[in-house]
Specification:
The complex is a heterotrimer of chains A (291), B (274) and C (332). Chain A has 2 domains: 1-45; 50-286, MetI-like (MetI-like fold, Orthogonal Bundle), CATH 1.10.3720. Helices cover 74% and strands 0% of the residues of chain A. Chain A has 14 helices and no strands. Chain A has helices at residues 13-45, 49-57, 60-93, 99-107, 114-125, 132-137, 146-157, 159-172, 175-182, 187-216, 219-225, 235-243, 250-278, 280-283. The radius of gyration of chain A is 23 Å and the shape is globular. By secondary structure, chain B is an all-alpha fold. Chain B has 13 helices and no strands. In chain B, helix 10 packs antiparallel against helix 13. The radius of gyration of chain B is 22 Å and the shape is globular. Chain B starts with 9 loop residues before the first helix and ends with a helix. Chain C has 332 residues and is an alpha/beta fold. Chain C folds into 2 domains: 3-112 and 242-290, D-Maltodextrin-Binding Protein, domain 2, CATH 3.40.190; 116-240 and 299-328, D-Maltodextrin-Binding Protein, domain 2, CATH 3.40.190.10. Helix content of chain C is 46%, strand content 17%. In chain C, strand 1, helix 2 (35-53) and strand 2 (56-64) form a beta-alpha-beta unit. The chains are: A mainly alpha (291), B mainly alpha (274), C alpha/beta (332). Chains in contact: A-B, A-C, B-C. The interface between A and B is large, with 108 and 99 residues. Chain A: The complex is composed of two ATP-binding proteins (CysA), two transmembrane proteins (CysT and CysW) and a solute-binding protein (CysP). Chain A: GO terms for molecular function: ABC-type sulfate transporter activity. Chain A: Keywords: Membrane, Sulfate transport, Transmembrane, Transmembrane helix, Transport. Chain A: It is a multi-pass membrane protein.
Chain lengths: 291, 274, 332
């Protein structure tokens, strides 16, 4: 076990024992707290065997829910990515009045209960809402259809990218970018050659979180989905439906779809870990005050 | 007062940010506020002073506070171990920290219930010992702690990684004990990050619905969370639901602002002390 | 028997291949525990319709809590037909002019093609010796039932208990209130939907007795094994009448009125009634019910209209904010 190598004091046996104890405590805690729920999902999903697992996730409704979840995430995440970068740029590179307020507004969706965020869009686009009657007259369907699913997902995941970028860009300061400008780079050149490389890891982490949350949200989506099976049910809604179903294989199916979603999430986490490990030498210089 | 703007894109980025926020966040919230105001003042007071509403708000905010404090303590420990020690399987555990973000809330709720129900994986051992978690307020706390867990670890980790060890060594060479080094040097430097993590975990837990309802038991006055009360109200009339939503929102917003302020102070203090 | 729809389907496809067929899609917005029933119904109806008219029909389903589903339709969920847990949830839609106020007279039997009743599901061997309603309020007994504020099915449970107490010799409002309050004191978990309660009781092993619709209790027994659960039929219970209706404005807009009406009429046909019975709903047709001797034991029932006037009144008195149910948990 290699511990704090450049601490000058000799490592006493009490310290070593403490280290081992702390590590054991953390490993035990995380196994029970995090690993166990994950294990439950996979064990229950595979209870009927691999064949039943593949069978259930190959159902029309299950496949449709996967397509829908991916579609919603594919629209919501890039939009929030652009927003996050723009907001972080404005917040960290310029001084303006009301900046603190703007920061608070960016965080606002975090303090709105998902249930309420669903209700928000019903109030706007529902048949009795602000724009509902007009939309209905013009044959535009937002609520109980894909657009409202995308909207609530954007709302729920809006702060993630900005939240990751703002502290980092603040810490980095703007010297490098100013230097690029002075050396004659255009705005976009500066952005792509200086800013983006500097923030890419935080950006990636923000996008991963944003994406994971976008694919997993239940409460808000449930309010605006209409639950039309095969058309407006995302994976989390499909899971709930299967879980509450008593058709053959429904119970297994719920956990099978859930384990697929968990697998997807684990995969993105694995990619992130791998990238960090592979490029750790390149990341290090960019962390503020790096070694 | 304004710095000379060498950097481009002020108008574009700010304009885009404001327009996006306006459309996605402020417009819908305006609709919510207007709906809530449809409820007269007396009705609003009646709603807010009803014992059931108070109990639900107490559980949601109190539970979220406890869960967030738990996450600060445990999250700090986990972050510390992850950053400072090397042991086999560390990377795997490190990746696992984000799991509660990635696991859909409903799935988390179902899985936690499957573990802690009296006939569950752990429940069958715990319940005979008199520790009942599922279907009690303890279950609510557990689900809240679960969904908010990654926030503290993930905000503390980078700061801990970037922290200059020289400071610790200097403190040690000046004769500070380990404990003194930790409380006087390390903790103040971590404070802003801890507070950010605390605030995020808190805000997330307050509004959480999907994972909690499966494990809560949902008995009014005992294990009923405020978001569930909102769901009940949505079926009756929107005004009540909207009012409850606005109250929760204001409350958590104030909490977040207070925490942000604390953060600024502690940040300044940390700067001065180093 | 099971092959008939398939054969019909094949024949229909062949017959129609030359004629120009158009795809019709129909949205049925229903409550939670009907998914197994409508899975069967939709298959049978689609093949019948195709063989008769040559049009391929796709029936989309939406399931959820009855009240929530009703809300969604009011907010624009484009349901052609609604098949909900109780009449009030459709009355609300009539108030919004989505269908006419006389919707309940447009189809036979109060527009409920099937009925059910509230029974008790207990664990094998009935260890707590539960025979009838009074046993449910014994101290220490755990009763599982969903929250009537969010579950339509649970409102029938609640009214069944209230009705039982009211119907006893010397029964009055005060006694009914006390009985229902004592019963809900014994509830350790209030799930948001009927299926949630079924899972809590059957999968999680919580509680001594589940208050359930008869069809739900029989389904659990079938799916999870007769060796695990027993059904106790009380001396008297409520006649649960889940209603169905065409949502006029939506059906007219989509041009689906004919098929929507045919769909609901199909529920009353011998085939539809048989599928209902197969899914453990009590069919209205006596000859169909006769084919399932012993499945639906006779019991005394009362209706909502008989005891409470109608669903609007029952809703206002018991389940609206500040109603009887809300008061249970305040006075303890």
């Amino acid at each position: 076990m290699r511990t704090t190598a450049h601490v000058s004091r000799p490592v006493s046996w009490q310290r070593r024992a403490l280290h081992v104890l702390l590590i054991l405590a953390v490993v035990c805690f995380m196994s029970v707290f995090l690993l166990l729920p994950l294990a439950v999902v996979f064990v229950e999903g595979l209870r009927g065997g691999i064949a039943a697992f593949i069978d259930t996730i190959g159902q029309r409704e299950a496949l449709a829910s996967m397509r829908l979840t991916l579609l919603v995430a594919a629209i919501a995440v890039p939009l929030n990515l652009i927003f996050g970068v723009a907001a972080a740029w404005a917040m960290t590179r310029f001084q303006f009045r009301g900046k603190a307020l703007l920061g608070a507004f960016i965080d606002l969706p975090f303090s709105v209960s998902p249930v309420i965020s669903g209700l928000l869009y019903v109030l706007l686009f529902g048949a009795q809402g602000w724009f509902g009657p007009w939309l209905e007259q013009h044959g535009v369907r937002i609520i109980f259809a894909v657009p409202s699913l995308v909207l609530v997902t954007i709302f729920i995941t809006l702060p993630f990218v900005a939240r990751e970028l703002i502290p980092l860009m603040q810490a980095q300061g703007s010297e490098e970018e100013e230097a690029a400008r002075v050396l004659g780079a255009t705005g976009w050149q500066m952005f792509f050659r200086v800013t983006l490389p500097n923030i890419r890891w935080a950006l990636m982490y923000g996008v991963l979180l944003c994406n994971a949350r976008a694919m997993g949200e239940f409460g808000a989506v449930s309010v605006v989905s209409g639950h039309i099976r095969g058309l407006t049910t995302t994976m989390p809604l499909e899971i709930e439906m299967l879980y509450n179903g008593y058709n053959e294989y429904d119970h297994i199916g719920a956990f099978a779809v859930a384990s697929l979603l968990a697998l997807l999430a684990l995969l993105t986490l694995a990619v992130k870990t791998l990238l960090e490990w592979r490029y750790s030498d390149q990341i290090a210089p960019h962390t503020p005050g790096g070694h | 007062m304004y710095r000379r703007r060498v950097l481009p894109g002020f108008g574009l980025s700010l304009g885009y940010t404001l327009a996006y926020l306006g459309l996605i966040v402020l417009l819908p919230l305006a609709a919510l506020a207007l709906k809530a105001s449809g409820l007269g003042l007396s009705q609003l007071l009646q709603l807010l002073s009803s014992p059931r509403t108070l109990a639900a708000l107490r559980l949601s905010f109190g539970g979220a506070l406890i869960a967030a404090v738990f996450n600060v303590l445990v999250g700090l420990l986990v972050a510390w171990v992850m950053v400072r020690y090397r042991f086999p399987g560390r990377r795997l555990l490190d990746a696992l920290i984000d799991l509660p973000f990635a696991l859909p809330t409903a799935v988390a709720g179902i899985a936690l219930t499957a573990i802690y129900a009296p006939n569950g994986w752990l429940g069958q051992w715990l319940v005979p010992l008199g520790i009942q978690i599922a279907y009690t307020p303890l279950g609510v706390l557990l689900a809240m702690a679960f969904v908010g867990f990654p926030f503290v670890v993930r905000t503390v980790q980078p700061v801990l990684e970037a922290m200059d060890r020289d400071v610790e060594e200097a403190a040690a060479s000046l004769g500070a004990t380990r404990l003194q080094t930790f409380t006087r040097v390390i903790l103040p430097m971590l404070m802003p990050a801890l507070l950010t993590g605390f605030a995020l975990a808190l805000a997330r837990a307050v509004g959480e619905y999907g994972s909690v309802i499966f494990i809560a038991g949902n008995i009014p006055m005992r294990s009923e969370i405020a978001p569930l009360l909102i769901v009940e109200k949505i079926e009756q009339e929107y005004a009540g639901a909207a009012a409850l939503g606005v109250v929760m929102l204001c409350f958590s917003f104030v909490l977040l602002i207070v925490i942000a302020q604390l953060q600024r102070w502690s940040g300044r203090w940390a700067e001065r002390s180093t | 028997m099971r092959k008939i729809p398939f054969v019909l389907g094949v024949l229909a496809t062949l017959a129609v291949a030359s004629a120009h067929a158009k795809d019709v899609s129909l949205l049925n917005v229903s409550y939670d525990p009907t998914r197994e029933l409508y899975r069967d119904i939709n298959q049978a109806f689609a093949s019948q319709w195709q063989s008769q008219h040559g049009d391929k029909i796709i029936i989309e389903m939406s399931h959820g809590g009855s009240g929530k589903q009703s809300r969604s339709v009011a907010e624009g969920l484009p349901a052609d037909v609604v098949t909900l847990a109780l009449a009030y949830d459709i009355d609300v839609l009539a108030d919004r002019h989505l269908l006419s106020q006389d919707w309940q007279q447009r189809l036979p039997d109060n527009a409920s093609p099937y009925t059910s009743t509230i029974v008790f599901l207990v664990r094998k061997g009935n260890p707590k010796g539960i025979r009838d309603w009074p046993d449910l309020i014994k101290p220490g007994l755990q009763v599982i039932t969903p929250n009537p504020k969010t579950s339509g099915g649970a409102r029938w449970n609640y009214l069944a208990a209230w009705g039982y107490a009211l119907k006893q010799p010397g029964g009055d409002e005060a006694k009914a209130r006390d009985f229902v309050r004592a019963l809900y004191k014994n509830v350790p978990v209030l799930d948001t939907g009927a299926r949630g309660s079924t899972n809590t009781f059957a999968q999680r092993g919580i509680g001594d007795v589940l208050l359930a619709w008869e069809n739900e209790a029989l389904l659990v027994q079938k799916q999870l094994g007769k060796d695990k659960f027993e059904i106790v039929t009380p001396s008297i219970s409520i006649l649960a009448e889940p209603p169905v209706a065409v949502v006029d404005s939506n059906a007219d807009k989509h041009g689906t009125r004919a098929v929507a009406e045919a769909y609901l009429k199909f529920l009353y046909s011998p085939e539809g009634q048989a599928l209902g019975a197969k899914n453990f709903y009590r069919p209205r047709a006596a000859d169909v019910a006769a084919k399932y001797p012993g499945l639906f034991p006779p019991l005394k029932t009362f209706t909502v209209n008989e005891l409470f006037g109608d669903w609007r009144k029952a809703q206002a008195k018991f389940f609206n904010d500040g109603g009887e149910f809300d008061r249970i948990h305040l006075e303890r």
